[in-house]
Design goal:
The protein is built from six helices and eight strands; from the N terminus they run E-E-E-E-H-H-H-H-H-E-E-E-E-H. It has a two-stranded antiparallel ribbon. Strands 3-4 form a two-stranded antiparallel sheet. The longest helix is centred in the middle third of the chain and has 15 residues. The relative contact order is 0.20.
C-alpha cells in the first residue's frame, strides 16, 4: 500500500505455491501482471516523446518502424496515437501466443506473418488490440536499438528501484514466480500452467513484476477516457488537453 511516494504497508497474503504451502514473501515473490504491461509500453513511448525521438504522437507509425511498414487504414496512415489508444482498425489477434521459436529481435518476415487485417477505419472506435501494442514495442526497439526487456530495465525498472521486475520471453520460469492453481468442483487443486509471454506479444505483457525499494509503479482503479473514447490512464496523460467526459 502506497501513499504518494511513501510505502505504508508491505505484506504478503496467501501462498506462492499452494501445494507446498510456501508463503508469499513481499520482497521476493513475483507475479505475472499480463496486460498491465501495456502501461509500461505507453510509458516508454512517453519517454521517447519527451526525449524528442518521437516528434509527435500524430505521426504515422511507419516514420519510426524499420522492420515493417503498416498498411494504410482505408487510405489513411495509422498513427502512433492510434496504436496507443487501440484505434488503428486491426482485427483482434493473439499474435502467436505461446510461440517461443523465434529469435530476438524479430525479423521482418515473422512480423509480417503475424500482422492481422485492417477491418475498420482508423480513429473511429476503440477495440482492444494486442497487436497494436506489440507494434509499439517493435517501434521502441527500432528507435532505440534495444530489445524491449533491456529498454524497460534500464529506463524504467532500474531508475524506480524495481530490482525484482523483469520482462521474460520464453517458456522458462522466473526464479520466484508464484505457481497458479485451479480448484475443481470437488475442492482439489491442480496446477494451472500459464503460458509465458510470447515473442511478438511481449510489449503487452510483462512476464513477472514485483516492486521493491522505493520505486512504485501502479495503475489507477478506473479507465481513463480520451476524446470521448476509452484509453489507458497513462495515454491520457500524454494528451492533457483532451476533454474528459
Amino acid at each position: 500500500m502506497v501513499q504518494g511516494d511513501r510505502t505504508l504497508l508491505t505484506r504478503g497474503y496467501g501462498y506462492a505455491d499452494w501445494a507446498e504451502r510456501s508463503p508469499v514473501i513481499p520482497d521476493e515473490t513475483q507475479f505475472r501482471i499480463a496486460s498491465i504491461t501495456k502501461t509500461f509500453t505507453a510509458t516508454a513511448v512517453a519517454q521517447l516523446l519527451e526525449r524528442g525521438l518521437i516528434k509527435s504522437l500524430d505521426d504515422p507509425a511507419n516514420m519510426y518502424l524499420k522492420r515493417t511498414q503498416l498498411a494504410q487504414s482505408f487510405g489513411e496512415d495509422v498513427t502512433v496515437w492510434d496504436l496507443l489508444t487501440h484505434r488503428a482498425g486491426y482485427e483482434d489477434s493473439s499474435l502467436g501466443r505461446g510461440a517461443f521459436g523465434h529469435e530476438l529481435p524479430l525479423v521482418p518476415e515473422v512480423i509480417a506473418a503475424a500482422t492481422p487485417q485492417i477491418v475498420r477505419k482508423r480513429d473511429t472506435v476503440s477495440v482492444y488490440s494486442n497487436f497494436g501494442v506489440s507494434i509499439l514495442g517493435i517501434m521502441i526497439e527500432d528507435i532505440t536499438g534495444q530489445l524491449m526487456e533491456d529498454y524497460l530495465r534500464e529506463n524504467i525498472f532500474q531508475p524506480l528501484g524495481m530490482t525484482n521486475s523483469l520482462l521474460m520471453d520464453g517458456p522458462e520460469r522466473a526464479p520466484n514466480l508464484v505457481t497458479p492453481y485451479n480448484f475443481t468442483e470437488d475442492g482439489s487443486a491442480r496446477g494451472d500452467a500459464v503460458a509465458a509471454a510470447q515473442r511478438l506479444h511481449r510489449a503487452g505483457r510483462v512476464h513477472e513484476i514485483h516492486t521493491r525499494g522505493h520505486g512504485q509503479v501502479y495503475d489507477r482503479p478506473h479507465p481513463g477516457r480520451t476524446r470521448g473514447r476509452q484509453s489507458h490512464p497513462v495515454v491520457r496523460h500524454l494528451r492533457p488537453h483532451a476533454p474528459a467526459p
